[in-house]
Amino acid sequence: MDRIELFSIIAQDIGSIFKYMSVATTLPLVVAVIYREWEMILPMASVPIVLFILGVLLLRVPREDREAPLSAALMAVALIWLIIALVSALPFCLGLGVPYLDAVFEAMSGWTDTGLTVMRSVEEMPRTLLFWRSLMQWLGGIGIVAFTVAMASRTGLTQFRLYRSEGRSEALMPSVVATGFEMWKIYLALTAGAIGLILLSGIPVWDAVNIALVAIATGGFSVHSGGIPFYNNPLLEVLIVPVMIAGALPFKLYYLLYRQKDMRFFGDQQARLLFMLIALGIVVIAWDLVTLSTTDLPTAVRQALFMATAAVTSTGFQVASPNEWASVTVLFLAMLIVIGGSSGSTAGGIKLSRVVLGFQSLVWWFRRMFVSGKVLVPFKYDGRVIPKNIADLEVSRNMLTIMLYFLIIFVATILVMHLQPTSFDSSNVIFEVATAMCNNGISTGFVSPDMADPAKLLFILIMWIGRLEIIPVIMLVMGLFKRAD
Length: 485
Fold this sequence. Notes:
- The structure is a single chain.
- 66% of the residues lie in helices and 1% in strands.
- By secondary structure, the chain is mainly alpha-helical.
- A two-stranded antiparallel ribbon has the order 1-2.
- The longest helix is centred in the C-terminal third of the chain and has 32 residues, at 388-419.
- It is globular, with a radius of gyration of 22 Å.
- The N and C termini lie close together (6 Å).
């Protein structure tokens, strides 16, 4: 099957996604009208207009009467996310006059829920663009494909493959459309609850809405350059913590709680591991801050609680600058960031499910070494016995993904240090690459508007690769360079 055939199979599905997204991206225009930022109408309108035109053109492509192979779905998802970021950069260029590369960096950081920024002054940005940044993270948290399938009127293998290719693993309902709809109900309820909770801190409604949107999406953009410390509000910091955790828990737990009144949150392996890692992070970081950085105990506990939660949930909020910490603390925080949150949540990173599966597979392998080859050692995962042939395949895929994450972080760190010579300690550079690859956003300050353009481009690619969990991007690159059969 050549490129033209693959494109004709998937083009109309991509076109439908762009048309749906064009509707969702009109929301910032409401903000422009409310705050009378008339000069932002045209720059902001460029996104829905371009997406709508692209959608209409793609829907006119003659469709091959066959289902899309998995490779086509993977390539399509990678292409969708890249094009969305390229188009979403337009308001920053047209409205602020920033270089297009910086605008793409901001858009990619938004859609991938990373939270790194190269904008020089957030306070000087129009509220329309501030809300646009928050909306990108909120929509990106649940996923572009997951957002659009909830509005689809049909279901089928193509939509299912697109949905799974985006890294979504939820199967709440038999139909992928029904699952998407249930996820959106959960997401809206969590967002409304987050706004109400954060309002209790006493900050303005505008700030509370933006913080809630990015916190439940485990993003990290802020409406102030100073971030969360700008408010100097300990209560706000405490209230944000449960919102970040809520975004990083598997959405299936909320579905079971709502539909089946199942209250056993800690019965889920990912949920248990999430809370264990947060507890471990609080102890280790607080200990390091007191013993290595001479921080007083109350401040150390306060920073450890917030930063450990932000790291594990892959939320880019921070109340301290890691570049002021000891290198060992920075690397420990990087470890939490790489692990990330739960599968089936808005969080990034390797995912807790892969860590659990990886640990259980190691135990399984070692158990098989100590018995006769004729003895069948069962592989148990999530309370079920998995057949050996399936277990071998899933374990191999799982370990391959984990290996690729670390390989990309390693190679990207070397490239970044060549492209951007810096006085930053190497642990801080490793941390910055890890936070981009795992779509976290906590920063040591290495990522800045003054970075060289090649380094910015590399970070854009890292964020894109990390959000799609590597494989779709590899498939797209292979598809572009593959010779036609």
